[in-house]
């Protein structure tokens, strides 16, 4: 009896197809594919018809290259290990004018995607003038082995926000940049901007002239915002443990470390479960329930490798205790304030949970 992290592979692939909606997606596989595992996810996405991948780390990009020899792989962070980028045929962002002038010789033979900064201010060329400056300098560069400009991209900082006008503003600023460059005769093999929220806000359509949407969380089974129906995105992940024993406690008893839970009623049944924060269950998640035999019961205290759940007489030792599954989704708890979808997923500890692909 050990707690388990398990994924239904066919459901994962079916969800990826449903998210893709016959569009071209660039699957974001950063942070070990949102903790689902790089090998598993890249192979599943390939089966779902996705052959373009994106991550923030060069080491991961190189691992993706080994799994998918023919894929297009885009590195969202600028790096300085130019030989590794070139040898592995990895496309990389061009993050600023300074970087361009400093490294344009080292970048020879590398495919770059010009990045537009926009409202997030994390990276990118600041204005369309800066973008054109790179394009013109590049056109005048006589070096035969110069870098190759094959893409244009940005990242929206507000696509997940509904109460403020910023998404509309950043989207319009970006669409204007794309339109202006294309109307001046520039061409890009890849144009991409939309994360999951932006892709769904546009009804699973690409913005005009775009070649890909750069989608992460939806492919891993979580909704980026709460007004989307659960049917649109399916979770294939289950996280579950077991009841080790059920204990009888009485009013006034303190259970767990440091008075974690004070019992309110005599003859309360407390299930001791073999999962805790050491397995990556967030403390905020433990303010909510767990499912045992199809019914939700409140979690009362969280320890490193255990938790207490207040149950009734129907629950016995060895019963399964579900923390996440398709009826108790990661995104349900995101919208209850537990933490971002990716935060709950990233916390899960694959060194202590048994990993099972069904
Ligand atoms: C993480 C990330 C994405 C994917 O975002 P989701 O909300 O998970 O779809 C897209 N683009 C960039 C630059 C990212 O860092």
From TrEMBL:
The keyword Isomerase applies. Gene3D superfamilies: Alanine racemase, Lyase, Ornithine Decarboxylase, Chain A, domain 1. The keyword Membrane does not apply. Its cofactor is pyridoxal 5'-phosphate. Residues 236-358 form the Alanine racemase C-terminal domain. Signal peptide: none annotated. Keywords: Isomerase, Pyridoxal phosphate. InterPro entries: Ala_racemase (IPR000821), Ala_racemase/Decarboxylase_C (IPR009006), Ala_racemase_C (IPR011079), Ala_racemase_N (IPR001608), PLP-binding_barrel (IPR029066). This is Alanine racemase. It comes from Staphylococcus simulans UMC-CNS-990.
